[in-house]
Give the backbone structure.
Amino acid sequence: MEPLSFQEYIRSLDPATLPRILRICSGVYFQGSVYEVSGNECCLSTGDLLKVVAVALQKVTCEDTETGQTTELPPTFKGLFQAAPDPGVYATPRGPRREGGGQRGLTLLQALGRWDGSPQPLMCPAIGPRALLLHPIYEVHAAMQLRRDVVKIPSTLEVDVEDVTEEAQDVRFARPLLLSELLGMAEALPAQAEILEGPAGPAIFESAWVPRLRRGQRLQLHGCSRAWRVLASAPSGGRHFLLSSAYEGRFRRRPRQFAGVRELAAGLQPGQRLRVVVTRDCEGRGDDVPPLGVGDRLEARGLRGDGSSARLLCHRRGEEEEGEEEEGEELLLPLHLGGGFVEEARGGKKCGLAELLQQRALPCEVRVVAPDPALERDALGALPALRLEARLEQPFLLGSFREEPEEAFEIPPRWMDFSVLLSEGPVRPAAPRARRSRVEELTEAFYYRLLAQLPRASAPPPPRPPRPAQAASHPGARRPAAPGSPPRSARSAPPLPPLPAPRQPGTPRQRGPPRDAGTESDSPEHDYESVDDGIQKTVHKTQTIFPF
C-alpha cells in the first residue's frame, strides 16, 4: 500500500485485522525522533517497524462546521448522531427534518465506524443544531524492536507509515527481559544473552566480574542456582561476606563469650545445656548471691521463675566430676549478676558449612581452618575469626562470560537486576568447581542495607529485674550522696575490699542445696582458692578448652 499519515491509517484501520506491521517511512520525523511515551523516551526512525496489537479510543473532537469551534467528547458519550441534511433541505428550529421520518440515531462508536477516509457532517441534538465533524483520537498499542514493554502511541503522531504485514510475516520482534523475569522462565535457559543496560545503582559485591556487566557484554546464562547463602562478618577487620552453600572450606567452632548471667541465659538453647568456664571473679552482693571465681566450671541448665525473680539454674562442677552430673553444687544465679564466661568447646572437630549450621544456631563465631581447595585465593582462610550471622534463601542465576565459560559466577537478580536480550546458539557448560561466587565480599553500604532487611529474632531476651528497694541495706551497696557533696565522677573511688584468706590446697569445697535469695550460707567463711593455684588451674584448663 501507499504510505499514509499515521492518523489517517489508524482512522481507517479495521480492528478485526490486528495485528498489523507498519514501517516508518517519512514525515516530520524523517531522521528519527525521540518523544516521551508514558514517562519513557521512545525513538522512531525511518525504517523502524511497529507491530500494532490494539487500538483504543481516547476521545473525539467535535468541530462545528460553521464556527470552527471544537469540543471534546469522551468515549462514553451517550448522545445519538444522524447524517446532516444537504444545505438545501428545510430544517426546523429544533433540528433537521427526518429524509424518511423514521431514521434511527447512531451511537458515537457506530458513527465512527462509518468512517470512509474523510469526515462526514453529522447532527447531534444533544450538542447543538449545527452540523459537526468528528475527529477521533486513538491510543495505539504497539510492539517495537528491543523494547521490553508495549508502547502506547497517540494516533496524532505526525509520521508517515506503510503497511508491510504481508511481506514481514517472518519478522521476529526481539523483547528484552530482566534477569528477575528469567527466574520464572526455567524453560528458556540455558541461553546466550547480550546485556542491553548494566546494573543500576551502587555496587553490592567487591568482585572483579561485577564491573564487566555493562552494555554490549555477552553472557551465557546456565540456569537457576540451588545454593543458599550465609551472611558473615570479620569482627576484627570490618569486612563482610556472602558464603554459598557450595563453599567447601572447613570450620572449627570458636567458644562463645558471655559478659554476665543475662547473656549466658540468652545463649542457652531450649532443651540444651551450656557448659562454660568463669573468666572473671564475681563475688556478688550480700549472702543471696554465691561467689564465682576464675576457673569455675558451670553448666547452665535453664531459667527458673519469671519476671524480677527469674534465676538461671547452673551446676558447678569440680575437676574430679567429669561426666558425673549427680555430683557438684547447684546454683541459682540472678540475671543481673555480672562476671565473664567462656564456652567450653571440646574436641575441636572440623566441619563443613551445612554441618556447622545443623549443630549451632546463628549467629555464632567460627574460624576457617581449611580453605576451599577449588578457590585460587580463599579470603576467609586468613581471618582470625568469622561471625556467621544469618542464612539467606535468595534466588541466583548461574552465568559466565561467553569468552570465559569455565569461570562461572552467580548473580542475585533481586539485588542486581538488569535487562538482557536472549539469542539463539549453543551454550558451553560451566565448570562447577570453578565458581567465583562461593565467597563474595560485600560492600559496606549493601551489607548494612541487607542487615536492616533481615527479620529480627522473635524470642525476647530474658527480663531485666528492677533494682531491689532494700539494696541500700546490703553491705557495700551504694548510698545516696549527701547534700552538697561533689558528683560521683569527682569523688575518689571507694577502697578495694581486702583479699580473702586463701583456701588451703586439698581442702574440699562445701556442697549443699542450691543457694538462692533468702537462703543463708551454712558457714560464715567464704570458700576461696589461693591466687597462685587459681592461675595455674586456669592456664591448665584453658589449654584443654581452646584446641586452637
